[in-house]
Amino acid sequence: MSDYILEVKGLTKKFKNEIAVNSVSLSIRKNSIYGLLGPNGAGKSTILKMVTGIMKPSSGEILFKNHLWTRKDLNDIGALIENPAIYPNLTAMENLKVACTLHGLPKIRAEETLNIIDLEKSGKKKVKNFSMGMKQRLGLGIAIINNPKLLILDEPTNGLDPIGIEELRELIKSFPSKGITVILSSHILSEVAQVADEIGIISNGIIGYNGKINHADNLEKLFMDIVERNRGVNS
């Protein structure tokens, strides 16, 4: 059996004459945190949207748990891409119960998830009165309500203050021990370096590095070298 929960092979996405993702291949190990690094517009979100079925690849393969990806695999995938899909006039508990209904899960799962995301003391407070960090944690809760095997997070710390970032970081680090593999997309090198087991660096739709973080290396220099090397490749 493979050690990888997700493999993408030669994944490409074209929009008319623009190549947004250019023959990308990645392998994500089970029960790990994988950091997908790249500047804004590098192709990170496009890759994640193809893995979650929001976009269809132009070419290439996506393998999930050793078989070709199908929409049924979304039952084992959770995602927080862009803004959390939450109802501001409902409480955190009510939002989680709605998510349980959508997934056909018992309501007890809402209570369990509320504890995991550490919002049990705010369960009766309407979400419109939440801080940005609390909203992000609730969005994470909705993403893990179905106890996914793979959790995809696209720039989850955007707009958070240092306290919110620290709280979210600790929550993300706890997921592999619960059997949840995490793909974390970000353009903030320091954030990913603190939590990721392995990283991929993408620029201009091309993966320039894929592997373990070597803390003896200068990650910022590696990042900038890849950005400069791939500049204008697809133009």
Structural account:
- This protein is α/β, with parallel strands linked by helices and 235 residues long.
- The protein has a domain at 4-83 and 148-230: Rossmann fold, CATH 3.40.50.300.
- It has helices spanning 44-51, 92-103, 108-116, 132-144, 162-174, 189-195, 219-230; strands at 4-15, 18-29, 33-37, 59-64, 67-68, 77-81, 150-154, 181-186, 198-203, 206-212.
- The strands form 2 sheets. Strands 6-7-8-3-9-10 form a 6-stranded mixed beta sheet, sandwiched between helices. A 4-stranded antiparallel beta sheet has the order 2-1-4-5, covered by helices on one side.
- β1 and β2 (18-29) form a beta hairpin.
- The radius of gyration is 18 Å and the shape is globular.
- The model has no long low-confidence stretch (mean pLDDT 90).
Record keyword descriptors for this entry:
7 helices; 235 residues; 4-stranded antiparallel sheet; alpha/beta; 10 strands; globular
